[in-house]
Amino acid sequence: MEEIFSPNHPGNLQDYEKAYREFNWASLEVYFDWSKGGIYNIAAEAVDRHGRGSRKDQVALHSVQANGDVKSLTFGELYRRSNQFADGLVKLGVRRSDRVFVYLDRTTELFISLIGIVKIGAMAGPLFSALGPEAVRDRILDGEPSAIVTSPYLYQRIAPILKDLPIVPLFIILGDKEGLEGTVSYSEVLASGSPDFEAVDMGPNDPYIIHYTSGSTGKPKGVLLPHKAMLQQLLGMKYVVDIRDGDVYWCTADPGWVTGTSVGIFGPWYLGNTIISYEGRFDARTWYSLIERFKVNVWFTAPTALRMLMKAGDDLVKEFDLSSLRHICSAGEPLNPHVVRWGVEVLDRRIHDNWWQTETGAPCISNYSCMDIRPGSMGKPVPGVVAAVVDENGMELPPGKEGFLALRPGWPSMMIGIWKNITKYREYFYVPGWYATGDQAYMDEDGYVWFLGRADDVIKTSGERLGPFEVESALIEHSAVAESAVVGKPDELRGEIVKAFIVLRPGHEPSDHLRKDITNFVRVRLAYYAYPREIEFVAELPKTRSGKIMRRVLKAKEGGHDVGDLSMLED
Ligand code: ATP
Ligand code: MG
Fold first, then answer.
1. Which atom of ligand 1 is nearest to the CA of 354?
2. CA 31 → CA 11, 19, 565, distances in Å?
3. Which 3 state secondary structure label does DSSP give 417?
4. Has residue 102 got a pLDDT over 60?
5. pTM of the entire structure?
6. CA 215 to ligand 1 centroid distance, Å
7. How far apart are the CA of 438 and the centre of ligand 1, in A?
8. Domains (ranges, CATH) in the chain?
């Protein structure tokens, strides 16, 4: 019998099929002030109307510092300070359409800066503060920002690369700028601006952000998202994230990634929800304690984090009161069925996997609170989005048949371009009539979408095509396996053989015996050609800064070819 997890709480979406059939984007316009004569700007929708209105004294953000201290901002405070920062930027000469990067730890000023930049009609460029000097240099050379907001410590980190830049942007320093030549101080910029600044009226297709992709498949691309993305981000909050009025919400993604802004900042603030942000690094105990302490109702995280929580053990979960949690989402990487099962068994909650990309700007395929979850499936397209599995001519493939995952262009949060790279942008549309996602998938008889892998990661072995995800998912069901990455290794006889890299759970040691045991365990669960003929035990897997497994690094090592851009590889 097929494994299914049925809905366990009534959600915002009652009947998916009906909503999908009857949906039109215009129905969401009423949620926004611009539909009632206000200006068109996503920062104004996220902050200003609450800051001036009935929510002005409600907390918009609890920012938890690495040491546990909390700084909170009400919508009113956020409104005034982001106005001041916006006006301060204008007084510095920053203009509409300029890029302004924010390279800061997750402090309140990160949020104030992002909102301020978007208010003046400039493009915010959030950079994850864990990025190293080379990654920052690449982005400065590409994005040519007129200003960068950063801290003295991060400024010092990237100082070595500044002398090689053809044009050095203006640095706005949060904190003591003593000795940092040619920079201006954040507090002075703020002090120079008016708290009554009016956000600039934008067009629906004007960009508000430049988000660099994660770099899983190559050099990160600078994706431009338009102000009209707000429609789909709001839809995502209602139907995918399933947020309700009064909910406390924690999205663990850094604002340097699209999840961290689209459903991490703007989405929840359109609806006036209080969000949590945590400055520190991942730690299982701290994460559970934050849910307990802030009575988080809705939680959005990623498969790698969930696997790390699993690795920390089930006893730890019992030490915390997680009863406030109602809805959990995961995105960014495939969610193994084993993790979904763990959610139901140990957290007593379903984890709702959803699929999207930096380029899509908001969730496009998802599991919904009203729908059965088939573990391992990403769910069904969100209302308003047409998704299909197609061949290279754009012909839709029948159920069960593997092919390219594609979307019908024109969803509101679709990127409007890749910064300074029209060729790259056009490549997404090489399949006639479709936007090609670069992922491989199939659809089942009932329209559920199943992820196989990135097109680049698909393994060709013994004349068969195989996605790494199903092999990895089988491997982590073994009690000794915490994480795994599977790649194709060149082989004269079979084209490629399946090779698995495995990180063991605490208390297990690598041995030939364990290798055999794991092989036998997965062999009976997979097609005859799919079990790994080679297993290598490793202490860690190569991951991007956003925590995604970088299979191309392992694959290049096995194939003896160049690994390509490594600026996004974690330390
Ligand atoms: P780059 O484009 O620079 O190589 P990236 O594709 O990892 O990096 P993102 O835009 O952050 O950059 O990630 C989008 C990709 O992440 C998707 O194309 C898909 O491969 C993967 N992904 C996202 N969500 C899911 C999910 N729910 N299930 C499976 N894969 C997912
Ligand atoms: Mg990508």
1. 27
2. 19, 17, 42
3. strand
4. yes
5. 0.96
6. 9
7. 9
8. 16-443 (3.40.50.12780), 459-540 (3.30.300.30)
